Amino acid sequence: MHQLVGRLAAVDPQAGESLKVIEFFDTLTTGQAGVPAIVRAGAVLSGATAGVALDGRVLRFDPEGRAQGGPAAPVVAAHEVGDASGWLEREGEPHANDAIIVERMTLAATTAHARRQPATASAELLLDEHADPEARARAAGALRLTGASVAVVATLPTDPDPGCGPAVIVATRYGVLRASLTVDPPASPANPTGVGVAGGWETLPRSWRSAVVALRLSGSPHPLFRAQDLGVVLDAALAADAAAPGAPPHPDVAALLALRDEHARDDRRDLLTTMDALAEHGSVRAAAVALGMHHSTVQARLPRALDRLGYDPRSTLGRMRYTAARQLLALRESRLP
Amino acid sequence: MTDTTIARPPFDPELAAVLTALAEQLPPTLTPEMIPLLRQSTVVASAVDELVGDRPIVHRTHTIPGHGGDSIEVTVFARADHTGYGPGIYHTHGGGMIMGDRCTGLLQPLEWVERFDAVCVSVEYRLAPEFPDPYPVEDCYAGLVWTAEHAAELGIDAERILIAGASAGGGLAAGTALLARDRKGPALIGQVLIYGMLDDRDATVSTQQIDGVGVWDRGSNITGWSALLGDRRGGDDVSIYAAPARATDLGGLPPAFIDCGSAEVFRDEDVAYASAIWAAGGEAELHVWPGGFHGFDMMAPHARISQLMLEARTNWVARLIEG
Lengths: 337, 323
Prior knowledge:
The complex is a heterodimer. Chain A has helices spanning about 15-30, 35-45, 100-115, 120-125, 135-140, 205-215, 235-240, 250-260, 270-280, 285-290, 295-310, 315-335; strands spanning about 50-55, 55-60, 75-80, 85-90, 150-155, 165-170, 175-180, 195, 225. Chain A is an alpha+beta fold. Chain A has three domains: about 15-115, no CATH class; about 120-240, no CATH class; about 250-335, Arc Repressor Mutant, subunit A (Orthogonal Bundle). Chain A has a five-stranded mixed beta sheet with strand order 6-7-5-8-9. Chain A is globular. The model of chain A is unreliable at about 1-5 and about 10-15 (pLDDT under 50). Chain B is built from twelve helices and eight strands. Chain B has an eight-stranded mixed beta sheet with strand order 1-2-4-3-5-6-7-8, with helices on both faces. In chain B, helix 5 crosses helix 7 (about 170-180). By secondary structure, chain B is an alpha/beta fold. Chain B has a single domain (about 15-320), classed as 3-Layer(aba) Sandwich (Rossmann fold), CATH 3.40.50.1820. The model of chain B has no long low-confidence stretch (mean pLDDT about 95).
C-alpha cells in the first residue's frame, strides 16, 4: 500500500493545487492540531524549513518534521497575521506554492494558538448548545458574561480579528469562520462583518447562527450587517439554514428561481427583474419607468409572471411576502470568499 | 460492504491531513483487479541504489535456494567499513502478500545498519496469488536458513540475528519465527513485528471499524488473504505459519516488538499477539499509536507521532543489540 503513495512533496504549481494546500490546513484546524503540527505541515508541503513566531515563541521545523534551532537559510516567503508571523526558508528561488503555504500556515497557527488560550476554550463552550450546562455556566462566569447582553460577531479568519472580544475559529458548512463574543459589537468595520442578535449568554449559540446569516448578507458597500435588521425574517433564514444541505427551498423562493429562469421573447432580462421592479414600485407604470420599458410591455408580461409567482406583490401582504422570499434567495445564493 | 460500520477511533489530525491530501492516489479498498497496477514499480536494481543514496552502505545481491529448492534472491546491506561480525537483521518486506519487493520498507533497517553496524539481509519471497501459501513464508524461512548458514561470510554473528518486517512482512516475520521455533533453528534474538498482518479470519472489531476508510481496509485485507489462501481463507485448514494469530501456544519465541495504529485493521490482532506472548510467559513490547492508520509512519514521516513510532522501534532494537 505504501508503494502507491507519492511522497508528500511540494504540490504541483498549478492553480488547482492551491486548494489542496488550503484543504490540508483546514483539515488540521478542524482536527484541532497544535501549532507544532501546523508548522511541520508548512515544512513538508513546501519542502523547506518553516517557522512561526507568536507570543514571544519561535518554532521551526525542517521537512522531515525535526525541530530546528540552528542558523536559518534565507527567507523566501513570509506572512503576518496580527502579531504573529510565519515564514519559509530555502536556498534559491521561492517555489510557486510558497506564498499560499506560508499564508495558510500562519493563519492556522494563530488559530491553534488562540484556541489554547483559556478565553478561547470558554468561548468555544458557550457557542455549543450541546455542551455540559454547568461547564457553560462556568465559562460564562470566566468571561464575565453573567447578566450581560452579549452577541456573537462573525468575520472571515483571513481578515484581522475585530478585537471586540474572545474569538474562536469555527468550521461551518460555509467554510471556516471566526466567532467573536462581544458586549460591544464593531460599528463601522472595514471587512465583512455579521453581527448576531444580542441576549443573555444562554442565547449565544443562536446569536452565532444569526451572525453567520448576517455575514453572508454583508458586502460592499456595507460590510456590516446586523442580523436583527432582518426582523422576523431572521427566523425564516435560520430555519432555512437548519435544513439539510440538499433540501428544496421554500416554494416562494423556488418561484423566484423559476422567474429568473424565464425570459420574455423580446428581452434578455428575466422575469425576476421585472417582478423586482413591480414589487418595489407598486405599479406597472412606475415599474416600467424604472426598467426603461413601455408600460404595455410590462403589462404584457404580468399574467405569466404572476402565474409563476402565485400571488401579487403589489398588495401590502404580497409585498411583504415577496420581499421576504427575495431576502431568503439572496441568502441562499450568497458566497463567502 | 457491511451494513453497519462501528465508529472507529479518530485519526490524529496531522495524519488526517495527509490522508485527505493523498486520497485520490490511494483508494482505501484494494481489489484483485488492482494487483497488476499495484506491482508496477521501478526495477529493483535501481531502487536499491536510490534507497541507499549517499549513505556509506554497500550492497550485494545473491541467488539462493527458496521453497522447494527454487531460486530466489536476497540483497545484503552492510556499512562500507564493516569488519568482523555484527548483529544480523533479516528483513521480510510488506505489501499485503501480493506486492512489494525486497527494497520495500527498508528505510529504517538501513538506519539500523548504519547506526549499529548491523548487516541486513532482505529477502524477495514469491508473491501471491501466483505463489500462494506456503511459498511466501517458506521462502522467508529458507532465506533465514541461508543467512544463518552463511553468517560468517556475511559478517554476521549467528548468535545475534533478529527478524523484522512490516504489514504482510510483519506476519511473515512472525510466521518465520514460529517455523524457526518449531524446526529448532535458526536461532533468533528478537522479532520486530511492525503493524503485522497476522489473522486471515476477518473477525475482529478493528476489521469492522476500518471498512472503506483509511489505508489497507477490511476489503483490501480480504483481497490479500484470499490471494494467499484461496478458499482456505477463514477455514479450518490454515497453518499458524501462514496466519500466526491462529497459534495457541506462543511460548519459546524470541522477544517481540509489536506496533500498530489505533485506527487500523490490524490493531486487535497485533494487541492479541502481544497478550498471547505474555500469557505464555514471554517478552513483548507493544505500542498502539493513537490516531494512526496503517503505515502512517511511511506516509507521513514528518508527523510527531510518526517520529515517536520510529524512535520507539529503534530504541527497542538498540536495547536488544546493545543490552
